[in-house]
Amino acid sequence: MTALRIAAETRCFAQPFKKALHTAASLGADGVQFDARNELRPAELSETGLRQLRKMLDDLNLRVGSLSFPTRRGYADPTDLDRRVEATVAAMKLASQLKASVLVCNLSLSASTENLAEVFTSLGAHGLRLGVKLAAQVHFSSFDEVAEFLAALPEGYLFLDLHPAHLLSQGHSPLEFVTTLGQHIAHIHAVDAVRDFSTGRNFEVELGRGSADFPSLLGQLEEFDYRGWATVERNGSDQVVDDCANAVKYLRAI
Questions:
Q1: What sign does the dihedral 187-190-191-194 (CA atoms) show?
Q2: How far apart are CA 250 and CA 96, in angstroms?
Q3: Reduced to 3 states, what is the DSSP secondary structure of residue 250?
Q4: Which of 23, 176, 206, 230 is 20 to 30 A (C-alpha) from 163?
């Protein structure tokens, strides 16, 4: 199995930006994932700022594995849609400038997919020109629904983000997601979760302690020749940095 490239999501550290970079480096991560909407906004980053960021990354021996762009409204919502699309394109341009090949976004297939197909065809075309893959974290009802939507777009215009904790919260099997849709996966979030049967809800836990079987997930992804990044993320913990450090070690051990 090819060695996995591991990134750390800087936003989950809840630290000043420069300190978060040093924290990511101290974990032994190969790279980082920035949030291009709430943490590192393209419009606020000058050419000088971009050069300084690149130097900091080089000094810490870190790469930018991916950027995320979590929108408040979905792409099916017509309210301010043009502005949302423009902001997504700007985030893809920033990803390209930082030599990141993936931008992670949100996609809900509960709404009409006709307008969604038009939006993601446009975004996918921008991504091809910039050399950036758009990887969607999908909210869906069935695996066939996801496959049909991807088939409605030109090939290579939209990919998927594997986020086991989100899949488990929707009642989906992460392993079935990989088995069924693995050829479309362009990014992994290394996040685990368990179900609280007393409340019927899922909650996030330290990687390797939940229901997401990462050895099996990564083994199945190898069947699809996956060569992307795995981003360590931790939420709802009093020891986020320690949990992320353990997550990096856990993935290295696999």
A1: positive
A2: 30
A3: helix
A4: 23
pLDDT tens figures, 198-208: 777 888 999 99
Amino acid type, 43: A
Report helix, strand or coil for 131: coil
Q: pLDDT at residue 1 above 60?
A: no
The Cα angle at residue 42 between residues 37 and 45, in degrees rounded to 5: 125
Side chain identity at residue 65, one-letter code: G
Look up residue 112 and give its two tokens.
């009409």
How many C-beta atoms lie closer than 10 Å to residue 167's C-beta? 25
> For the chain, how many residues are written?
254
Element spanning 168, H or E: helix 164-169
pTM of the model: 0.94
Q: Say if residues 231 and 189 touch (Cβ distance below 8 Å).
A: yes
pLDDT tens-digit map of 162-186: 999 999 999 999 999 999 999 999 9
Residue 189's pLDDT is what?
Answer: 98
Residues 189, 167, 195, CA angle at the centre, nearest 5°?
105
**Structure tokens, 44:** 């606020």
